């Protein structure tokens, strides 16, 4: 069970050191400004499950490490488990003091964390908890709450549509991602009582391997064929939502069937503005990156913090010290919040056919 909940505050990020700014070397996120400095390695999972890893996390982490004046190396395994382990080996050999990982699956993540621990390298699970792993800290969002917001969002959108006794399809995240399990725990906590009462009907329900959007479209095509009467789609993130929307559009039902999402991607927000997606869940990635960078810098300096919360790892049967941040539900009427926060810009969002919907939504 989680014990306590720590929300991001300016004070958390303010503990970052703000001295020298590291230079960026050609072709990598590697900082170096002379002298022996702590070095932090970060392994991102891929570019396919969500665009956030490259467009947001890499950028925010690099900025935080530069501000702290530490050396750093940020690499992306691009969904390749062998590459993930090879990158980790190279980072450990290069002398990183701290290794921050977003695992591809718990098995691969555990192997990397255990090797780092054996070499005296401090470790942090970033965004995804490695079940059975040995990370000293976990930094993420309250992922059960993410799912709860998705479930509540779908209920709201169906009610707004005046839909009675809807058939709901669930397009879940990767079965190897513990976060996907937590998301499902959250939205099923909202939807299961409605299924049990007969108010809703549970339709097709399937997980998407590796969060692959192309596979998601094929899976949802099959779902729609089996239940063309479906009236709502619980899609676990914006990429999966877009895959479902493509199928609905082909069948002239986009905008009629509410679809949820997650990550507040440009594409997801544009789908919301167009009326094809009913909501997404915004996770302020900068706060997550800043919190992880703060802990990494402290660990590299030999300090240990108590973040004030824990998350239970049922496989390893241990409570992992955790920083858990609060997610936010985004509908058409508060897309501006994501723009105001700087996560996306008006220029990115309000292009071409989306200019008019942006104006109507009051995007500034």
From TrEMBL:
GO terms for cellular component: outer membrane-bounded periplasmic space. Residues 40-304 form the Periplasmic binding protein domain. It comes from the Bacteria. Keywords: Signal. It is found in: Cell envelope. Its main location: other. Residues 1-22 form the signal peptide. One of its GO terms (molecular function) is carbohydrate binding. InterPro entries: Bact_Solute-Bind_Prot2, Peripla_BP_I, SBP_2_dom. Gene3D superfamilies: 3.40.50.2300. PANTHER family: D-XYLOSE-BINDING PERIPLASMIC PROTEIN (PTHR30036:SF1). This is Sugar ABC transporter substrate-binding protein. It comes from Kitasatospora phosalacinea. The lineage of its organism: Bacteria, Bacillati, Actinomycetota, Actinomycetes, Kitasatosporales.
């Amino acid at each position: 069970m989680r014990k306590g909940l720590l929300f991001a505050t300016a004070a958390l990020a303010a503990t970052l050191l703000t001295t020298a700014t590291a230079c960026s070397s050609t072709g990598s996120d590697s900082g170096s400004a002379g002298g022996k400095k702590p070095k932090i390695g970060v392994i991102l999972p891929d570019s396919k499950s969500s665009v956030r890893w490259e467009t947001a996390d890499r950028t925010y982490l690099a900025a935080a490490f530069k501000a702290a004046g530490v050396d750093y190396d940020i690499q992306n395994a691009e969904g390749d488990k062998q590459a993930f382990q090879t990158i980790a080996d190279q980072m450990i050999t290069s002398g990183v003091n701290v290794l921050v990982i977003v695992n591809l699956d718990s098995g691969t993540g555990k192997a990397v964390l255990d090797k780092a621990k054996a070499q005296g390298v401090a470790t942090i699970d970033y965004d995804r908890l490695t079940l059975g792993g040995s990370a000293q800290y976990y930094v993420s969002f309250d992922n059960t709450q993410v799912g709860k917001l998705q479930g509540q969002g779908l209920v709201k959108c169906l009610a707004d549509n005046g839909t009675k006794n809807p058939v709901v399809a669930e397009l879940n995240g990767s079965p190897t991602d513990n976060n996907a399990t937590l998301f499902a725990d959250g939205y099923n906590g909202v939807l299961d009582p409605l299924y049990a009462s007969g108010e809703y009907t549970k339709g097709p329900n399937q997980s998407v391997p590796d969060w692959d959007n192309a596979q998601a479209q094929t899976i949802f095509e099959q779902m729609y064929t089996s239940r063309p009467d479906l009236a709502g789609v619980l899609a676990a993130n914006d990429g999966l939502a877009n895959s479902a929307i493509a199928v609905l559009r082909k069948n002239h039902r986009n905008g009629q069937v509410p679809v949820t999402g997650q990550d507040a991607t440009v594409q997801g927000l544009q789908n919301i503005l167009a009326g094809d997606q009913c909501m997404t869940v915004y996770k302020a990635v900068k706060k997550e990156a800043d919190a992880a960078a703060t802990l990494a810098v402290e660990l590299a300096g030999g300090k240990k913090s108590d973040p004030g919360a824990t998350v239970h790892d049922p496989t390893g049967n241990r409570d992992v010290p955790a920083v858990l941040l609060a997610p936010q539900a985004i509908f058409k009427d508060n897309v501006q919040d994501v723009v105001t926060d700087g996560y996306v810009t008006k220029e990115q969002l309000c292009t071409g056919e989306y200019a008019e919907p942006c104006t109507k939504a009051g995007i500034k």
